[in-house]
Amino acid sequence: MERPLKPIPAITLDQSLRSPRYAQVFTVLRDWILQGVYAPGTRLPSESELCDIFSVSRITVRSAVEMLEQEGMVQRIQGRGTYVNADLPTVPSRGDLSELVRRLRQLDSKSALADVVIREETADDMTARDLQIPAGEQVTHVSYVRTRDGEPLGVTEIYIPSSLKVTLTEDDLHGPAPTLLQDKGFEILGAHQLIGAALADSQIASQLKIPVGSPVVRVRLLVLELTSRPIELLLAYYRADQYMHHVFLAASRPAAPTPGVPA
């Protein structure tokens, strides 16, 4: 079975939390499965490997895996290990950040940035929840309008916890990485990208020079560091008449028979 793309780093559990250690291990493993770190059909690390990753006992690991099994997320196969169930309906499709880099470079070469603002501010409730920081904590807020031939294409808002002590300039917005923090040396586990439809409010409509209530494409990117903690939130709104998302879907093909083995 396929293994994760990257080795999973050791995790230090928060001793200040009231929840039992097995519940914390369960939460992290569940998040990894839902984020696609362990895809459907993938074997989880062995009990001893999980003990090393979390620095916990086998009893703690077994209790966490039992909780995953009770939720229908994994199944244990005697003598083979624990596998993520193949029919999980909530697991996102797995993408590749390198493909996002390619798309952003292509977009960056054909457009320019305008009205760039970088400031410190208090996170609103929704931003604080997404970044898993206390309400009222400070964040670095980056905003800009992307233009082509002087016409606005999209509006982007980026939020980063100020506690990370990252200094940003306008030059950082043209970096080669898909996230600002990856360019700053942070190790990235991955990101959740959601693309959907929305209607332009008065602020977005003014920035994009379209009527209020016009359809826009909303892109949300939540970047996670190696411990699965959210560290960067990007919200972008593009004019619906200027946005196209091209994906090639490969057809699945039956596996070639093994020589000497009947089909």
Provide key terms for this protein.
263 residues, disordered N terminus, 7 helices, alpha+beta, elongated
Structure, explained:
Mean pLDDT is 81; it is low at 1-6 and 255-263. The relative contact order is 0.11. The radius of gyration is 22 Å and the shape is elongated. It has seven helices and eight strands, in the order H-H-H-E-E-H-E-H-E-E-H-E-H-E-E. The chain has helices spanning 21-34, 47-54, 58-70, 97-110, 125-131, 180-183, 202-208; strands spanning 74-77, 81-84, 112-122, 138-148, 151-161, 188-199, 215-225, 230-239. The chain has 263 residues and is α+β, with helices and mostly antiparallel strands. The chain has a six-stranded antiparallel β-sheet, with helices on both faces. Helix content is 25%, strand content 28%. Helix 1 (21-34) packs across helix 3.
Number of helices: 7
Query: What fraction strand?
Result: 25-35%
Strand order of the largest sheet: 3-4-5-8-7-6
**What's the rounded overall pLDDT mean?**
81
H and E string: HHHEEHEHEEHEHEE
Q: What structural class results from the helix and strand content? A: alpha+beta
Helix percent reads: 25-40%
Q: Give the overall silhouette.
A: elongated
Give the radius of gyration. Answer: 22 Å
Distance between the termini: 20 Å
- In total, how many beta strands? 8
